Fold histidine kinase.
Amino acid sequence: MRGFFRPLLGRVARRRWIHLILGGALVMPYVLVGAVIVGPVSGSSDVFTSLPLQLASFAVGLPLAAITSLFPLTRPMSVAAVRALCGVDAGSLADGPARSRAAKGRTAAWFTLHLGLGGIVSGMSLSVPPFGAVLIALPVFAGLRDTRLGLPEVLGRPWGLALAPVAGAATLLALAGCAAGCGALLARWAPALLGPGLEDRLAAAEARAADLAVRNRLARELHDSVGHALSAVTLQASAARRLLDTDPEFVREALAAIEDTTRRTVGELDAVLGVLRDGDAPGTAPAPTLAADLDGLLRRTRADGPPITAEVDTDPWALPPVVSREAYRIVQEGLSNALKHAGGQVPVTVRIEAVDGHLEITVENPLGQGPSAAAARPGGGHGLRGVADRARLLGGAAHAGEADGAWRLWVRLPLKGPV
């Protein structure tokens, strides 16, 4: 028995019934406007008491509803109501206003269908329950058999009285079935009429791509700034531990370098994390650039032990800001790789030059000294991929590998164009 009534009066059916009644409430202003039009046209003043004129007002009001559904808020409001009341998968519905003509047409069709079925079911919900209740109570209460109530004469006969409760119950079940059927119809058509079109899918894909680009950029910034700082601090602390008793002056310099490195890294980390916190403004620490901090980067890295030869054949202050910023991170990653994989005493050469409208960056160190790349920490290699990503986003190119008995990182960035 429960399985019979669940499709008619279960939780999903009741919520869909409420959704239909909401459509009936929304259609009422349009019906009133329709009555204002139908009354003078028909020449009758009984618009609100004549069923044919009421149906005519309803028919006139629905096209008006279709026109007003072109407002941008119609689809978001309809989608919210469907998600809350119709039991439709939220992922099958579109978000935001309709953008294209086709999407607006589907929204108008949905709005008209919802208000049309809602108006019918709402009218039935107001009139059928009292009528069914009267039929059910008719054999018990003689006063209900008054002919002035407009009941059929057959109900005054004995067999008619006996069948009246059955007819009343059947009427109520028919109402529930009609509401359940209309609710199921709306739920079935909702994904087709309110679902995402091609434009919505493209907009969602662009939003996901933009979000992924931001996430990847934050990951690169964290890897390059924090990874370089940890590599440098590890080497400085290791050297200071070895020379603690024999060279106190070197230990003091190493500790000062550690302090400077960590202070700068904390500022950069705060700037990156500020973007991740909802409602927080980004950190105030400026992004490092070649113009602002190349000398400091080289000085801090030399404090870790390796001799670094730097050849800068361009004016860093003349570089576009975005190129200067990305180039700084690329040089930083190249030095970090040299420290991690070649050892702390291997000479490193850094060359930065402008060639044919491009900025070329080369970071090179000899092979065969210090720990090999195979001994690198597990999960390594993200830095070189980050360098390639930075170069590609600016329209440049990057290559890393063995060349002439050395490990070489070579990057070429355009000074104009995508930047």
In short: Residues 2-196 form one domain. DSSP finds eleven helices and five strands in the chain.
